[in-house]
Every structure is written in structure tokens, then in C-alpha cells.
Specification:
Layout lengths: L5 H15 L2 H47 L1
Length: 70
């Protein structure tokens, strides 16, 4: 006998299979891509929202103030 029991071989086989298994890696990569894109989109919408508020609604408020001051 070589000194290893069947249980030790089985555990070693399971650990090797676990280390080589990459099936969950793709899901993690897609999850990370979605998270990064979400942060970029939220930041972009925030910047566009501030610009819209300042330019569009600022112009409307200025027009209303001009009309009201007549």
C-alpha cells in the first residue's frame, strides 16, 4: 500500500477539481463589468443632470425674471 487512504485521495481529487474549476469566474467577471458600468452611468447622469438644471432651467428662470421685472 502506498500509505494514502481512499478518503485522502478523494479529498485531494476534490480540491484539485475545485482549483481548476472556472465556471463561476465568468459570472464574477460579468458582475464586475455591470457594477463598473453602473457607477459610470450614474456619475454621467449626475453630471448631465446638473448641466441641464443649470443651463435649461437657469435660462427659464432668467426669462421669467425678465418678464416679471417689466
Amino acid at each position: 500500500m502506498n500509505g494514502k487512504s481512499q478518503d485522502e485521495k478523494s479529498v485531494k481529487h476534490l480540491l484539485n477539481r475545485f482549483v481548476r474549476d472556472e465556471s463561476g469566474a465568468t459570472a464574477m467577471e460579468y458582475g464586475m463589468i455591470v457594477a463598473i458600468l453602473s457607477v459610470i452611468i450614474i456619475a454621467g447622469i449626475g453630471a448631465i443632470g446638473q448641466t441641464t438644471r443649470d443651463q435649461v432651467f437657469g435660462a427659464v428662470i432668467n426669462s421669467i425674471n425678465v418678464v416679471l421685472s417689466m
